[in-house]
Amino acid sequence: MKMAAISRALALTAGILPLLPGVAQAQSDWPSKPVRIIASFAPGGSSDLVARQVAQHLTNRYGQQFIVENRAGAGGNIGVDFVAKSAPDGYTLGLATSGPLANNKSLYNPMPFDPEKDLTPIALVGEIPLMIAVNPSVKANTLAELIALSKSSPQPLSIGNPGNGTIGHLAVEYLRINNGAQFQSIPYKGDAPAMAGALSGSVAGVSAPVTSLTPQVQAGKLRALAVTAANRFSGLPELVTANEQGVPLEATVWSALIGPAGLPGHVVKSLNEEINKYTNSSEGKAKLASLGMSALSGTPAQLQQKMASEAAKWKRIVEAAKISVE
User: Counting beta carbons within 10 angstroms of the beta carbon of residue 232, is it exposed (0 to 12), middle (13 to 18) or buried (19 or more)?
Assistant: First the structure.
């Protein structure tokens, strides 16, 4: 009887403990010092600028400094690997893109980390869709027409992309494999060289993030055929999506806040709520739109599901096209 009474008392104490002021205070102490946000690409690019927007918002909300630290290289893997190997105490986070969170798993061998096992998904932030555009001399006004043109051409149409294994490259291979497009992917070293190839006519077209191509489209130097997102791009609202043309394709560079595996649940919950407040606010949407990014939001579970589904989607394309990155 005495042992049963002691057990009941212990159980009651355990039930009350989380409600005690000391325990609540321990959880609310985070953050009690500056927090690092690792940006996995070089300063000045869209990923870096998004990280700085997020860091500023979190600094304002929590009253502690959120400091962006750039660790670029290996398609974003170096920065995310640093996060994965950091202590799960909430003081090292990462602003990462779809490459290291999903696509790179099939492209790099070996990968220094496993996105599904070594990271804690926190919150989606936004996405930048691809645009497929052509030199004005190409006789196609839509993506569907370009695919039809490629099938009737004696030689495959050359389509430039920002580099081997980039989302621009994967999207072209997706169209070739799933729609029978007779395309030849031509990798360049970055968005600007790929765009220059299309402008000069060295390649028929280009598949690259919409932000890099919009000025040339607006100037009439390139003809935009489609944007590869679920919805139209606000910067070019008249440009139809690939899906609207009957060509199912969604290919975007999406960004998310992540941490190392084992991040405390109360930290994840708090950060997710703050990021969602930002991306759902008019201010947040406007600031992200200034970078060509559409705001996203959702739960950590939805981010985890997106990481897994995107990894599976592009794994099939990488294997079918035999793409690898050294």
Answer: middle
Same domain, 218 and 293: no
Supply φ then ψ for residue 18, to 5 degrees.
-60, -20
DSSP label of 324:
-
The region that residue 160 occupies, defined by phi over 0 for left and psi between -120 and 50 for alpha, beta otherwise, is beta
Question: Do 227 and 142 have their domain in common?
Answer: yes
Q: Looking at 245, 269, 292, which one is the last position of a domain? A: 245
User: What is the C-alpha to C-alpha distance for residues 38 and 42, in angstroms, rounded to an integer?
Assistant: 11
What single letter denotes the amino acid at residue 63?
G
- For 226, the token pair is 């489609």
Kindly state the tokens that stand for 41: 């690409």
Q: How many domains does the chain have?
A: 2
The domain that holds 69 is classified in CATH as: 3.40.190.150
Kindly report the pTM of this predicted structure.
0.88
The answer as to whether 6 is a domain residue is no
Question: What does the pLDDT look like over 66-119, one tens digit per residue?
Answer: 999 999 999 999 999 999 999 999 999 999 999 999 999 999 999 999 999 999
Residue 11 lies in a domain: no
Give the 3-state DSSP-derived string for 112-168, with helices as H, strands as E and coil as C. Answer: CCCHHHHEEEEEEEEEEEEEEEECCCCCCCCHHHHHHHHHHCCCCEEEEECCCCCHH
Which of the listed residues 245, 276, 298 is the one where a domain comes to its end?
Answer: 245
Per-residue pLDDT of 41-79, as tens digits, reads 999 988 999 999 999 999 999 999 999 999 999 999 999
How far is 106 from 23, CA to CA, in rounded Å?
43
The two structure tokens encoding residue 245: 């043309």
* Radius of gyration of the chain from its Cα atoms, rounded to whole angstroms: 23
State which residues form the domain around 269.
33-127+253-321
